[in-house]
């Protein structure tokens, strides 16, 4: 914030691009945009951070303007956002322990290792982030939301909160023609069922009522909403509490697009980084 003649002028978030990160784990160059709050370089404090999948869509979801507006209005704390541009989404996003029935997500474990072993150490060295902050989060859209959930589930020591916008929780081990059953073949739901409770982990989910037309069980509810609500049920059975550990936003008329996710983005930021 700059002071001129007794008046304060708020400075917006600014973006620095890390474009020369070579990942031996992924075997490719990775690009990440780092969104930095005002006064970052003159402050001595450490900041919470958000890792955002599909960072190449930052302009489309109005990330910078949303961060600036919410910070200017004193609605969120300062946060560093690391928006990681996607590589091969169909292979690097998914569930680390299991590819889907079409062998998609085969490199999800490598992407997780890249974040934990390569990217976060670089970010920690270059930016004043607190790797143990209570608000550290990861989020993503569609397949990126599936990936974010899986990474947070596996690394709650770093990521305390996870946001999934229209998450691809249909990710499954069988095609519908192979005798698929909801109760057994959705990968993330089964993972939560069989795994242990992670204390302190919190979840934010968003769907749109027009995310897709499919309704495989003909119950009048589209699959993306069914799959998300069923995952919330599994988390509740595991011990997580709705309205405390779990938040759900359903956007009436919202579809599977950056336009809808941009509308939902302020809700996520106020949930994850809102001032009490």
What labels would you give this structure?
globular, 8 helices, alpha/beta, 276 residues, Rossmann fold, two-stranded antiparallel ribbon, 10 strands
Characterise this structure.
This protein is α/β, with parallel strands linked by helices. It has one domain (2-273): Rossmann fold (3-Layer(aba) Sandwich), CATH 3.40.50.1820. It is 32% helix and 23% strand. The chain has helices spanning 63-72, 89-92, 108-126, 143-154, 182-185, 187-194, 223-238, 258-273, and strands spanning 2-4, 7-9, 14-23, 28-36, 49-52, 80-84, 137-141, 161-165, 202-210, 246-255. It has an 8-stranded mixed β-sheet, with helices on both faces. A two-stranded antiparallel ribbon has the order 1-2. Helix 1 (63-72) packs parallel to helix 8 and helix 6 packs parallel to helix 7 (223-238). It is globular. The protein starts with a strand and ends with a helix.
